Amino acid sequence: MEESDSHYSAQELACCIIMLYERGLRDQSKLITIAARLAHKKYKTRNAKKPIAAKKQVFRVRS
Fold it and tell me: Structure pTM?
């Protein structure tokens, strides 16, 4: 998992693993794979790029 280039927080990954385990998933390889995908999806959603128009700031120059 550490070597993959997916981005997610360790805390988010742990939360996903616990949630899946509590819901009955016991196969370790499936558990880790699905948890990593969920954590990565949450990371992408949280860090999604905002539209350029929303990022632009208007600077007024005083003369």
Answer: 0.65
Tokens 């550490």 appear where?
A: 2
Q: What are the domain boundaries of the chain?
A: 10-55
d(CA 49, CA 55): 9
Interval 14-41: pLDDT, tens: 999 999 999 999 999 999 999 999 999 9
Tokens coding 2: 């550490």
d(CA 24, CA 46): 27
* Degrees, nearest 5: CA angle 10-39-18: 70
- Sign (positive or negative) of CA dihedral 17, 21, 27, 28: positive
